[in-house]
Amino acid sequence: MSHHARPNSALLHSDQLEALAADLDQIRDDALAQVGTEDACYIRRLIAFQRGLEILARLALVGTLYHWAFWIFGAVALGISKILDNME
Predict the structure, then answer these.
(1) The predicted structure's pLDDT at residue 55
(2) C-beta atoms surrounding 36 within 10 Å
(3) For the chain, which ranges sit under pLDDT 70?
(4) How big is the CA angle at 19 (ends 17 and 24), to the nearest 5 degrees?
């Protein structure tokens, strides 16, 4: 017996799948309609900040040749940059 066997009642029929797809498309369209120019500007600013922070962090990591504190700043800044990158 297969571990992944499902009873026939768990399967959706083609008309149910089409209805589900239409519902999901409607949800996506509603979400996209709510995104305005202000939201787009915010996202662009966030992306620019994240990329600038990443560059600064990597430069700070190079600065560890001069002082150990640059490593701490660079590691923390790079971590924050990656968190922001994943939030996009």
Answers:
(1) 97
(2) 9
(3) 1-10, 88
(4) 95
